[in-house]
Specification:
Bound molecules: adenosine-5'-[phenylalaninyl-phosphate]
CATH topology of the largest domain: BirA Bifunctional Protein, domain 2
Strand content: 15-25%
Radius of gyration: 34 Å
Number of domains: 2
Strand order of the largest sheet: 1-4-5-9-8-7-6
Number of strands: 9
CATH class of the largest domain: Alpha Beta
Structural class: alpha+beta
Order of helices and strands: HHHHHEHEEHHEEHEEEHEHH
Shape: elongated
Distance between the termini: 64 Å
CATH superfamily of the largest domain: Bira Bifunctional Protein, Domain 2
Length: 337
Amino acid sequence: MEEIEKAKIALRSTFDTLEDKKQVFKAPEMRALFDGMREIAPEDRAAYGKAVNDLKTEVKSWVADIEAADEVIESIDVTAPQAINAGSAPSFLPSAQGSQHPLTTEINYICDIFQRMGFVVEESREIDDDFHMFESLNFPEDHPARDDYDTFMTDEGLIAPAHTSTMQNRIIKKYTSNLDAGEPISAVVPDRVFRNEDLDATHEHTFYQIEGIYVSKAVNVGNLIATLESYMSEYFRQKLKTKLQPFYFPFTEPSFEFAIERPDVLKKDNSEEQKWLELGGCGMIHPNVMKSAGLDPEVYTGFAFGFGIERMVMMKYGIEDVRHFESANLKFLRQFR
Ligand code: FA5
């Protein structure tokens, strides 16, 4: 019957919008069907009544289906790709349009330079402890210098590393046998670090650093400068001068801030102000750091450095805001393909 079919379509769309599905039996479309009986010719009433009852039975099954679905909460595989849980494929860009993130490309390039200079590449970790973040690095307990690193901490007291220097102790211990064999310890550690920072064009809360550690006999500041100069010239692909100015880090003595002569691409003019760019910290590894890693500082000396990778990449390409890197802005990212 045509009017029953029409009523069914109208009922279904009302049903779909109802929060309490049982209210469908009180829907105006349902009432109109029963009221309509009066207008049906007596000889057709039996067939009409049956059709209305059949529809009512069907509507009951709609309600039952929804209630059953509410009862069984299907478990989802939280490790599965989104498509499995969502039931439909997410719309990905075609792979031909994808590329490595510029920071990945640059980190690989940076590591390649250090490897050619004889450094091994090690990974850091994204959760660490007080010993590696502070104690092994000669930060006495309650020392105000701990406050310079606004760390994120778990309830259990674990720390999201605020710098890659957390790896100094592990690297020295891991490669102590190099020293016994007359070889230096020379490693770099590029990885993510986390700070509770106020964000601006040069400050992110999550960013990358690269730590360098070199230990041997009779290492001096001259070796540190030569290493950094060679690296910087290679990275920026031009001969650049470096400058060390005195600074304070508990884990190096003496400690320096490390600046480079601005690469041409980043020079606005030839003024003295435009000449230098600060990149990171460095210094000679503090005797207490050597001792906490089991080395005799009377026998072994070394240097360490740590610089911000985003800042280095920003300087190389003239990027004005560090937040571009994590923005997922394709217009920005595609410039590096
Ligand atoms: C350190 O983190 C020391 N661990 C560096 C070091 C290593 C010194 C070894 C001596 C020996 P500092 O807090 O200054 O130092 O950070 C080093 C570099 O990380 C900065 O010069 C900058 O390039 C980068 N950096 C620091 N904070 C941020 C931030 N919020 N966003 C982006 N880059 C940052």
